[in-house]
């Protein structure tokens, strides 16, 4: 744990009566290293998956996929550290009236993100090298990770402060749903050097909710008043992103019927 260190070695105030906050902060920071709190955990998860394909005709395929996916927290998010700061005004001895005691910390108690996801796709291979695909998907996300602020109290050398500590936290539940339309074709019917040109295009719409708003400044009534609003999950905005578990995880499918090539969506 890294303790705050006052910018000045001695109180810069002319009147010693104005040095109360500075002296208390110096006493807190010079009390030695605070011992950390042991943390750790374990978890077991079963991650089943199901993929079904139905040939409605030689050119049309229907696919259904259901699975449970898990995304573990990054190591830097779980790093067991706490860094505290005592913030003064420009004079060096008056506490900041808005955010006097702040800090950042890792969270070794973070749980992995779990997503139950379902995909249904209809694929039309209208040419040997052309396809049109439509997909709808739904995901229920549990324990999503977001950046939050919590109040934590520390006592050192006889001085007690409550700090607003920013760290990664687990949320509750959220949902991600939407659809995708994809088209691809090689124009091998074109003459001469134009033969072989192709086009690949797709459109994805994502609607997500369940994220918790975070009041960066708990002393700002506007932020605090909106802290309970339901917002889109982090990294799950419109249009689609590539951050798991927001992307669709469908099974591999043949690129073109009758060929050995494959592509993974």
From TrEMBL:
Every TonB-dependent receptor-like beta-barrel domain range: 36-211
Subcellular location: Cell outer membrane
Region (Disordered): 242-265
One GO CC annotation: cell outer membrane
InterPro entries referenced in this protein's UniProt entry, alphabetically: Beta-barrel_TonB (IPR000531), Beta-barrel_TonB_sf (IPR036942)
Domain of life: Bacteria
Primary site of residence: membrane
Keyword Membrane attached: yes
SUPFAM superfamilies per the UniProt record, alphabetical: Porins
Annotated keywords: Cell outer membrane, Membrane, Receptor
Pfam families: TonB_dep_Rec_b-barrel
Protein name: TonB-dependent receptor
Taxonomic classification: Bacteria, Pseudomonadati, Pseudomonadota, Alphaproteobacteria, Caulobacterales
